[in-house]
Amino acid sequence: MNILLRILVTSLAAFIAAWITPGVHIDRYTTALVFALVFGLLNFFIKPILIILTLPITIVTMGLFLLVINAIIILIAAHYIHGLHVAGFWAALLFSILLSIFTSVLHRLGQKKIG
Questions:
Q1: Is residue 22 classed exposed, middle or buried when 0-12, 13-18 and 19+ CB atoms within 10 A define those classes?
Q2: How far apart are CA 111 and CA 115, in angstroms?
Q3: What's the rounded Cα separation, in Å, for the pair 21 and 111?
Q4: Rounded to whole angstroms, how far apart are CA atoms 63 and 57?
Q5: Sequence-separated (6 or more) residues with CB below 8 Å from residue 37
Q6: Model confidence over 78-104: pLDDT tens digits?
């Protein structure tokens, strides 16, 4: 149930972030659900490899390069998901930042209401 809740929260955050971010468009909420699922899978399988490969630059930038890795993962997801349009790297980077913020806020709101 926790995974299902995370997917729903991420899809809602992605839908809101796409609405705000210029250059990012999600056609329907079902597309946001597919994005949340694909984004989670890419984060599970691809992100650790990218982190290991870019560890020196991540250390030098004090972790800020992880935002670039998230933007790359978003661009990969957009390539495979019909209905998700990302104009370029800078749009993906801004979308990544907003997605992180909104997901964090929504998870905290959910924890306060549940707990």
A1: exposed
A2: 6
A3: 26
A4: 8
A5: 7
A6: 999 999 999 999 999 999 999 999 999
Q: Facing residues of 84 across strands? A: 26
Distance CA 54, CA 12 (A): 30
Instruction: Give the C-alpha separation, 21 to 62, whole Å.
Output: 25
Q: How does DSSP classify residue 22?
A: T
Rounded to the nearest integer, the mean pLDDT of the chain is 93
Give me the residue label for tokens 């957009």.
Answer: 78
- The tokens describing 67, both together, are 């935002």
Q: Report the C-alpha gap between 5 and 12 in whole angstroms.
A: 11
